[in-house]
Specification:
The chain is an alpha/beta fold. It is built from 26 helices and 7 strands.
Length: 595
């Protein structure tokens, strides 16, 4: 018996693969997405306040998402302590759980080997590689949506009983508490699509138990939602739903351009290294259209793509709830490209070759480009990340060529045990490279380079930032910040930390050939400090004053007796290299007006 024929053995192997990839570098990787520090810090404030109903960030209401993610993150902090690892633990656990759910659900409807392939693909695709380790709400929501679809399948096609109805409506409540109405909208569109694809008989609505299940889900959500609405005067609905869901649906967030066919293109990257198999989708649909599972999986896939195709704010990970069904649908006829029809086979090798060339070009470009020593770690991290993706690509190709579709065991397809060892070797290589990327990125992050200055003043002292307003400041300083305003004279006379953004250079200009002098000027203030996270950066007083003037810092700040420095670092949320002018006072000086 092969390992993919044993549910327990296969589940254990998949959990190991998923954990190996997702845990690599998670503790050392600085908070990247702007929502990561908001979630991470809001959970800390929730714990400090002892308030499990209304989240706060930077001592202000945070209505962006319901509370489930904060509750789960609190468990992560209790397990691993305050820090990146604790903040991300819930996402990693949910992503690993998704790997197992894809396999176990797939085991029921497509068989063990196809299910194993789909789960392995989930664990190793680019979008899960990225979002499976981020301290945000997506993974718990996707896990809930997948559980709902499993329950729907059991109720509609396998005559499932009350335990599946309980799972359906319990998962609906959990999904809503994780990320709001989208968790309900995706399976709802699946049901509507099934009705269109299969006629009236395709959906036996009475089997869903909505008469008691829907009130149960509403009661579970209402146990939090009603107190939250009462305590905030309805703002949780007005802002959380009206602003962050409805408004983003009719007007693109941050004025992003709306690109037609956006998700048809981004899925090629998000699903890589398995997107080259997408050429098989027409073949699978043509061969297996009469099978109820094919129509069910297709309806599930179409849900997120239809919803977000008419949603104005476009982000690549929005279609992630469709990936479990897409992968289960995709591999029904195997993975070996030698068995594909000629058009699918050409698409498969063309896309693999194109991405491999691009990734090798990134590695070569990073090696060839001469950059100042202070940002050399950034190009090394970029090249190493490309190497990690190449390793995942190699694992996908080897998996396909080794007969993982079920026609032959891995060790029987030529190369013997070496092929069996090569596959976990490539996965491990991707994990090691990811860990190296995280370790290399950490000392480059601007909020982390400011760590010595956070320690100069107590968290209760005034913290002011102008121009540089990243949420990471609040998380890493463990203090509340006044953002985008200048301090008064009275405030400057007291202990505090005052931060101004000077020059800023985008990633396109930072890595542009022929811009050596521009790059060197942009990072000149960093001096020669090897480890920006553990040392205070030296800076000449007159140079700092000049940079402060260029940053628009008021004269009475420049002329005061505040301690001062310049810190440069990468802002990963905006992909820019930022120069930050820092003023700080450790103790209150004699009263005087230095203007």
């Amino acid at each position: 018996m092969q390992i993919t024929d044993s549910r327990l053995g296969a589940s254990l192997l998949l959990a190991i693969v998923s954990a190996t990839i997702l845990l690599a570098g998670t503790a050392s990787l600085p908070l990247l997405d702007r929502d990561e520090p908001r979630f991470a810090r809001a959970t800390i404030e929730m714990l400090e306040r002892g308030d499990w109903v209304v989240p706060y960030f930077n001592d202000e209401y945070r209505f962006d998402k319901p509370p489930l993610t904060y509750w789960l993150m609190a468990v992560g902090y209790a397990t691993l302590g305050y820090g990146e690892a604790g903040a991300r633990l819930h996402a990693v656990v949910a992503a690993i759980g998704m790997t197992l759910v894809v396999f176990l659900f797939g085991y029921r409807i497509v068989g063990p080997r196809r299910a194993f392939t789909a789960a392995f693909a989930w664990a190793t695709c680019v979008q899960v590689f990225l979002h499976g380790r981020l301290a945000v709400a997506d993974m718990p929501m996707i896990l809930a949506v997948t559980a709902m679809h499993w329950a729907l399948w059991e109720l509609l096609h396998e005559n499932g009983g009350n335990r599946w109805r309980l799972a359906l409506w319990g998962a609906a409540a959990a999904g809503f508490l994780a990320k709001g109405p989208i968790a309900i909208a995706v399976p709802a569109v699946t049901l509507l699509t099934l009705r269109l694809l299969g006629g009236r008989a395709s959906v036996a609505w009475r089997r869903l138990g909505a008469a008691w299940g829907l009130p149960l889900a509403l009661a579970l959500v209402g146990a939090w939602g009603i107190p939250a609405l009462l305590r905030t005067g309805g703002q949780f609905w007005d802002v959380g739903i009206g602003e962050h869901i409805v408004r983003r649906g009719v007007a693109a967030f941050n004025d992003r351009p709306i690109v037609p066919g956006y998700y048809l293109v981004t899925v090629l990257l998000s699903l890589f290294p398995w997107s080259p198999n997408l050429g098989q989708i027409p073949v699978v649909l043509r061969r297996r259209w009469r099978e109820p599972r094919t129509r069910f999986l297709l309806g599930w896939v179409l849900g997120p793509f239809l919803i977000f195709s008419v949603y104005s704010t476009q982000l690549p990970h929005y279609t992630l709830p469709a990936f479990p069904a897409l992968l289960l649908l995709l591999f029904q006829d195997g993975t070996d490209p030698s068995q594909f029809p000629p058009p699918s086979r050409r698409f498969y090798w063309f896309l693999h070759a194109l991405v491999a060339i691009l990734l090798l070009a990134v590695i070569g470009y990073a090696k060839w480009l001469d950059v100042p020593a202070q940002i050399r770690g950034l190009k090394v991290a970029l090249a190493t990340l490309a190497g990690a993706l190449l390793a995942l690509q190699g694992a996908a190709i080897l998996y396909a060529r080794a007969g993982a579709s079920g026609r032959q065991p891995l060790a029987d397809r030529g190369g013997g045990p070496m092929r069996v060892l090569a596959l976990p070797g490539l996965v491990l290589t991707a994990a090691v490279a990811t860990s190296m990327v995280a370790t290399g990125m950490r000392p480059l992050a601007a909020p982390i380079r400011l760590l010595p200055y956070y320690a100069m003043v107590p968290p209760s002292a005034l913290h002011v930032a102008t121009g540089y307003t990243e949420p990471s400041l609040v998380f890493y300083s463990n203090a509340f910040w006044q953002l985008n305003r200048s301090p008064t004279r009275a405030e400057i006379a007291a202990p505090g930390l005052f931060l101004y953004r000077g020059a800023e250079l985008g990633l396109d200009r930072l890595f542009a050939p022929g811009a050596d002098e521009l790059r060197r000027r942009a990072v000149d203030a960093c001096g020669t400090v090897a480890d920006g996270a553990d040392a205070i950066l030296p800076a000449d007083r007159e140079k700092v004053a000049e940079r402060a003037r260029r940053a628009g810092v008021p004269a009475f700040v420049i002329d005061s007796d505040l301690s001062r420095a310049v810190v440069c670092g990468f802002n990963f949320a905006r992909s820019t290299w930022s120069e930050l002018v820092v003023f700080y006072r450790e103790s209150t000086p004699p009263p005087q007006d230095r203007q």
